[in-house]
From TrEMBL:
Signal peptide: 1-29
Record's protein name: L-rhamnose mutarotase
Keywords from the UniProt entry: Signal
Keyword Magnesium attributed: no
Stored InterPro entries: Carb_Metab_Mutarotase (IPR052996), Dimeric_a/b-barrel (IPR011008), Rham/fucose_mutarotase (IPR008000)
A Pfam family assignment: rhaM
Top-level taxon: Bacteria
């Protein structure tokens, strides 16, 4: 991906990630096929209501467990075809809000790169977001590093294998990045993450290198780069009437 070392409430976030404050969500079944992300960003600082997005997700059978929020951002992650159907409906649902489609990941790790290729039947997803720096040359450097990471920095992928990460995807739209880390359902990311760097110091080298390419979104605290997109507490919804 990836994410460089970042401080967030005393924690480091990187590829070796030390991710504190992760809140588990209901599990999702192991996905099949391509995935995508849609983000809705409000014009002000007031959080956007999620009701319309949840209704669209239910209508198009997108798992609402992966509807997330950070400040005035709403995000939904799911199967690409269904996410695109939701995306088409959002322009009229959220007025002047900005709607962005992250149509495909530019980076993907999965268990096929591990010696132990077994995958869990159910996953918990962690979603985070950050910006690339404004310098176009550095943006291209960042993408080039990721295009050759598995060949030139194999220790990073091995760290993900060691930590039992099931999948790791990084999406991009303009400068903004969306990161999805999938772990076995019920696992504790705070416990898994240190395994990415255990006896694997080159992951720390990678994190230090990536730090120069990333910065926080508007609204982040000084020194904060990657932020967690928090699950939306969902009430039981009545069945939709078509």
């Amino acid at each position: 991906m990836s994410v460089s070392i970042v401080k967030r409430a005393g924690a480091r976030l990187g590829l070796g990630l030390v991710l504190l404050g992760f809140r588990a969500t209901p599990a999702v079944a192991q996905p099949t096929g391509p995935a995508a992300v849609v983000e809705i960003t409000g014009t002000g600082t007031t959080p956007l209501p999620a009701d319309k997005l949840l209704q669209l997700c239910r209508k198009y059978q997108v798992p609402t467990v992966d509807v997330r929020r950070w400040q005035n951002h709403l995000v939904i992650y799911g199967p690409a075809e269904k996410i695109r159907q939701v995306h088409k409906q959002l322009g009229t649902s959220y007025g002047k809000a900005t709607v962005k489609l992250y149509s495909a990941p530019f980076y993907k790790f999965d268990r096929q790169r591990c010696t132990d290729k077994a995958v869990s039947k159910q996953w918990d997803n962690v979603l985070l977001t950050a910006n690339l720096v404004r310098d176009p040359a550095k943006q291209q450097e960042y993408l080039a590093y990721h295009a050759t990471q598995f060949q030139k920095w194999p220790e990073v992928g091995q760290g993900f294998c060691n930590a039992s990460f099931q999948q790791l995807l990084v999406f991009r739209n303009g400068r903004q990045l969306m990161l999805v880390i999938s772990i076995p359902h019920g696992a504790n990311l705070d416990e898994l993450n240190p395994k990415t760097t255990l006896n694997n110091p080159r992951v720390d080298d990678w994190n230090a290198l990536m730090k120069q390419y990333q910065e926080g979104l508007p609204g982040t605290k000084p020194g904060e780069v990657w932020v967690f997109l928090q699950p939306i507490a969902m009430k039981k919804q009545p069945a939709l009437q078509d």
